[in-house]
Amino acid sequence: MIFRKNALAHLMLAGVLSLSVVPAGLAQATQDSDVNSWSAPRGYDMAYPENGTPNMVARQGYAAGFNQGQADVSRGQSFKPTDNKAYAHAKIPKGMDKDAFKTEFREAFVKGYTNAYKGQ
Which segment of the chain is annotated as a signal peptide (predicted)? Predict the structure, then answer.
């Protein structure tokens, strides 16, 4: 009985350790796949043509604005893209210039909001 418990414990430990170690190439492939599988909201490609290099700040801002614009239309709210928590309090990634991020995020947010609100 003790042998079975030890064998089971070792088997479980081996499984956990094998899941925690991810080869560097696999981790990069997953990240690239996430970037390439992103589905742009309506109008994004016209507003921000990427030419193979993803603009993650514009993607984040535009998508947030687009979603908020759709939500506001469905609730019958007036057109006010800058009166929104997401517009005012964007999450700034570490290492990015705060002012540059906010400017680009907010510009993309307003474009996404406008396209969703106006149905473009």
Answer: 1-29
- The pTM of this model reads 0.67
Considering only CA atoms, which of 33, 42, 113 is closest in space to residue 72? 113
For the chain, how many residues are written? 120
Picking from 28, 75, 33, the residue whose alpha carbon sits closest to that of residue 54 is 33
Query: Do residues 107 and 55 lie in contact, with contact meaning Cβ atoms separated by under 8 Å?
Result: no
H/E stretch holding 104 reads: helix 98-118
Enumerate residues 6+ apart whose C-beta is below 8 A from 71: none
DSSP assignment of 44-100 equals HHHHS--TTS--HHHHHHHHHHHHHHHHHHHHT----TTSSHHHHSPPPPTTS-HHH
